[in-house]
């Protein structure tokens, strides 16, 4: 990858910097290689709890008001998120504001105060966030899917946590998880834009020196997908929300590109198989799509849709029939060409700002373990053949391995096992 600086400190922190002479902004991210799948049974939701509570005060910015004012003075954007496998604190600013951005983000990941009163207030905010998620059916049906598809493994942990557990978290729990997790060897720092590696390294050194030393929090255990069928009635919903999923390749699988193109063919656009069949020809739904969710050791190829309760069974039956056609007959050359163009276009669009380049560096370093140039990534897409797609479809679209969560079903209209057999 041209113009990319990469180093690993003696303590184990990986740092990647891409200089972009054509821009005047810079983006910086502190990535922790630990998310909800790395929590213990008594720690569900703690990774997300930490993401919130570090913003309640740090050594240099002791109160939330001071942190908010410091963020506004940057003139740019600062945010954070927690996923299944990472937590991230990032920002984008004009180049001359980089020192202040490093200081602010560095404080968040090294010197949070965990003030009891502030944590109590933020705990209430997180509980409201969980309640809001339950009120958003597309979010909640996905959470139901993850909880059953990987049931019994840490990948099933809800990112937001369970209310009854989150309600018990305070400074002691936050501090213990922080000190075990926010270690040099768990940290990846990525930056892209109008900046140079050596000055950035000088800015980062005081931050790195503050990180605790010692054994890091262990990685989460393996996760094996399992078939299931779950109907959850909800009288307050006008529609049934559905997620169907098949086991899929991990981030580092050699079939990753082919599986992504298969997802495009199934539900990636207005000419995709599922959109044409379920919406345009049958009028069963307004929206339907498919997407790939890869992780370190597993993944899921998911189909999401919503429809009237009376049409849910037919929608599932026809979706399964379309998957069976792809599995048995493969795809057409023009379908593969369109999918490749969609994938290439999405890839190029994702590289056209300093923040997207920063995110791309982190994704490759953390999830794929290697850096690829844009040309190499495009070539990987182009190398997928019709035979590759046919083989991957046969392997993935196996009805006996499917998981399905249906939220909002009515009595007598639940999805049945026979609806999943094409």
Automatic annotation (TrEMBL):
- Per UniProt, residues of the Peptidase M16 C-terminal domain are 173-342
Q: Which residues form the Peptidase M16 N-terminal domain?
A: 16-161
Which domain of life does this protein belong to? Bacteria
The family database entries (SUPFAM superfamilies) matched by this protein are listed as: LuxS/MPP-like metallohydrolase
Which is a Pfam family this sequence falls into?
Peptidase_M16
**Gene3D superfamilies attached here?**
Metalloenzyme, LuxS/M16 peptidase-like
Q: List required co-factors.
A: Zn(2+)
Alphabetical list of InterPro entries matching this protein: Metalloenz_LuxS/M16, MPP/UQCRC_Complex, Pept_M16_N, Pept_M16_Zn_BS, Peptidase_M16_C
Task: Give the family per the record.
Answer: Belongs to the peptidase M16 family.
Question: Which PANTHER family does the UniProt entry name for this protein?
Answer: METALLOPROTEASE (PTHR11851), MITOCHONDRIAL-PROCESSING PEPTIDASE SUBUNIT ALPHA (PTHR11851:SF49)
Name of protein? Peptidase M16
Taxonomic lineage is: Bacteria, Pseudomonadati, Acidobacteriota, Holophagae, Holophagales
